[in-house]
Write a structure and sequence with these properties.
16 helices; 35% helix; 21% strand; globular; binds nicotinamide-adenine-dinucleotide
């Protein structure tokens, strides 16, 4: 699903976009960070020994990526579904000690850090226990399943002085770093409007994943899965398609908005919670008993700009960000970033004066020319060049995000996406769902640390 290479189609799409904007385009292929491209040797004493808690789809992707991070080693794995042991070993290309109970991992003194990729409703429990056991934690997004969970997790990490990295990997991507550089340069002017969307139209993308035929009450620890959720009889649909159910996941907001919000917060250096959100949407196609809509659109108020987000499971337009400034526009579309300047040169208002009586019009134009003695030549005004930056083939931001975490574990320096950043982004998702389900604006009450209607 991940599109991270600069394909012929990307070039055509980018140049079509630039042409449509009346612009020529200059193309640059971004270079990976040195750490990723040519790993520095890490002294054996500096090797980080970590364990993976939750080795489902995401856990395995993270294990696979960890093989490309220098100086780290996975020494234990844990999951509630026995078959995931084989998946994890396949990702790691070796076998390591395995358990169903993550506390067995936390008891081990030789483990420095844990990667937590469990269902969302279990994030808090595993994260808080891991911090209390002195482990640094890489925890998947969305950090929290509720507002209360998020603040408990922030407190746990800070109280025990742990490094915590939340798993919205785009904030470590060289693509987003370039977008941020452009944003910070001021070339966009003032940015008051930001729009982002993520549309996909395949059943897997709508959380309708196949159920493995060997899943049953012997191979799945159903009791442990229900920790922190209402008790109910074994139901493999709930275990594997958990994102559809509010007891375990947060629907499209928790799954996809969180990436859009993290990307926007990162590019704009916004480490805060939106003040207010208003959602609309509906369940149009996937009427399979799920709790969440398959289309959600949310408008957010931030102190200095407004944000519009959309996720639609009934269209394939992919991922998109637009930052609309007074001097230019920045677009992130899959594996490219495009900046296009605007023509901000002054012009006489010919539309308004076109039906003024001749003398009035001529006087206005004469005055305008006097006020603007040297307007730029027409050619320079038409040549608004777009700059397009693209990811190199095979680039993987997950590797960079993990590398950033493991470096911090070693150095005790800051990560790119700590528990506060992750908490703020996750609350954006909770605001969206609150507004959708309560059919009202969701207002963030910062003093009370809660959402009010
Ligand atoms: N950053 C990203 O792009 C990205 C992509 C996909 C998923 N995720 C996140 O990763 C997490 C996992 O998602 P997934 O797609 O791998 O789901 P999944 O259902 O494939 O895997 C989750 C696994 O967690 C295990 N688990 C749950 N509670 C556990 C516990 N207490 N101890 C041990 N194992 C436990 C389950 O047995 C299951 O195998 C979610 O939070 C999800 O939002 C992030």
């Amino acid at each position: 699903m991940k599109k991270n290479s600069w394909s012929r189609r990307d070039f055509i799409r980018a140049s079509t976009g630039a042409a449509a904007a009346g612009a020529t385009a200059r193309y640059t292929l971004l270079q990976p960070t040195p750490l990723w491209a040519s790993p520095q040797p890490v002294a054996p004493s500096d090797r980080v020994r970590f364990a993976a808690i939750g080795t489902g789809i995401r856990g395995c992707i993270l294990l696979d990526a960890s093989l490309r991070v220098p100086g780290v080693e996975c020494v234990a794995i844990c999951d509630l579904y026995d078959t995931r042991r084989l998946s994890a070993e396949q990702a790691l290309k070796k076998s390591v000690p395995w358990s169903r109970d993550y506390r067995a991992i936390l008891d081990r003194k030789d483990i420095d850090a844990v990667i937590v990729a469990v269902h969302d409703h279990q994030h808090r429990r595993v994260f808080v226990d891991a911090c209390a056991a002195g482990k640094d934690v890489y925890c998947e997004k969305p950090m929290s399943h509720s507002v209360e969970d998020g603040f408990a997790m922030v407190e746990a990490a800070q109280k025990s002085n742990r490094i915590a990295q939340i798993g919205s990997q785009r904030v470590s991507s060289i693509l987003y770093a370039r977008a941020k550089e452009i944003y910070d340069s001021g070339k966009l002017g003032e940015v008051y409007a930001i729009q982002a969307s993520w549309d996909r139209n395949d059943p897997g993308g709508a959380f309708v994943c196949p159920i493995p035929p060997d899943a049953n009450e012997q191979t799945v620890d159903w009791t442990a899965f229900l920790e922190g959720a209402p008790k109910r009889p074994f139901d493999p649909i709930r275990f594997f398609r958990w994102r559809c159910f509010a007891d375990y996941g947060s629907g499209l907001a928790g799954d996809l908005f969180v990436h859009l919000i993290s990307g926007i917060h990162f590019v704009t250096s916004t480490n805060t919670i939106a003040q207010r959100a208003q959602s609309v949407g509906g369940l149009f196609h996937y009427k399979d008993g799920r709790d969440f809509p398959d289309l959600i659109e949310t408008f957010y108020d931030y102190p200095n700009f407004r944000v519009t987000l959309r996720c639609n499971l009934n269209n394939d337009q992919g991922e998109f960000f637009g930052f609309y400034g007074t001097k230019g526009t920045l677009i992130i579309k899959e594996s490219t970033v495009t900046f296009t300047a605007q023509d901000t040169h002054p012009e006489p208002d010919l539309y308004t004066v076109s039906w003024w009586p001749e003398k009035l019009r001529n006087d206005y134009l004469a005055q305008w020319r006097e006020d603007h003695p040297s307007p730029p030549p027409l050619k320079s005004r038409l040549d608004q060049e777009s700059e397009v930056f693209a990811l190199p083939s095979g680039y993987d931001d997950v590797v960079d995000h993990e590398a950033n975490f493991f470096q911090a574990v070693r150095s005790r320096k800051k990560v790119v996406e700590n528990e506060e950043f992750g908490n703020h982004a996750a609350i954006g998702c909770h605001l969206a769902n609150y507004s959708y389900f309560k059919r009202t604006a969701a207002v963030w009450d910062a003093a009370a640390k809660k959402i009010v209607g």
